Amino acid sequence: MTTLDELTPGWSRRPLRELCASIQAGPGQRAEDKKGRTQADEGSPVVLPRDLRGRRIVIEKAAAVPTIPWERARTLVKYQVAEGDILLTRTGTVGRCALVTQEHAGWLFHPNLVRLRPTEAGPVTAAYLVAYLSATAAQDWIRTRVAGSVIPSLSIRTLGELPVILPPDDEQAAIGATLAALDDKIQAHIEIARVTREYRSELADALMNGILSPEP
Question: How far apart are CA 9 and CA 80, in angstroms?
C-alpha cells in the first residue's frame, strides 16, 4: 500500500478535516444517562465503542443496548448518526472504526466515539474512507499521535490533521466496493458465530437438565 509519505502518480493527499462536513465527538453524559437503561425501557439507542467490530456496528445482545430517555434524546439530535457516517474510537483502544448503515441510522453515539460525516458529493466516499482509516498506514499515524496519558486519547483537532491519500474517483470506488464486500462477508460470519454460540448454550442447558437426550 502507498505510505503517507509517498504518492502514486494521479493520486492526491488531503487532511481529513477537508473531507468531512463535520467531525463530532459524542455528547457529554449526565447522571440520568448512566442509570443502566436499555431498549427494554425504551428510548433512543446508543452505539458503544465495543460495538465497533470489523468496520461495522455489531450488536451482540439487542436487549442490552443502552438507551437515552426520549425527552433527553430530543436535545441531542445533532449527535444522531446517519447512513454513511463513520464512527471511530477516540479513547482507550483508539482508532477502531465502523461505517454506519441504515440499520443504525438515528442512533446516538457514546462520548468516547467521534462521528465523521463525509462531505456530500465530496472527493471521498464513505466506503473508501472507512477502509482507509482502518488500513495500516492510517492506524500507525493515529497510534503515534495518541496522547501518552493513562487512558490513550486522540483529540478532534489532531484527528482532523490525518492525511488521507485519495486515488482517482474510479479507483477509489473500486477499492471501496471491493473492501466493503469483504466486510459484509466478515459480518455474515460474525452473525453465524453469534447464533451458533447461543444455540450451543441453549443446547447445553437442555442436555444437562435432561430436557433433551443426546443422539446415539
Answer: 38
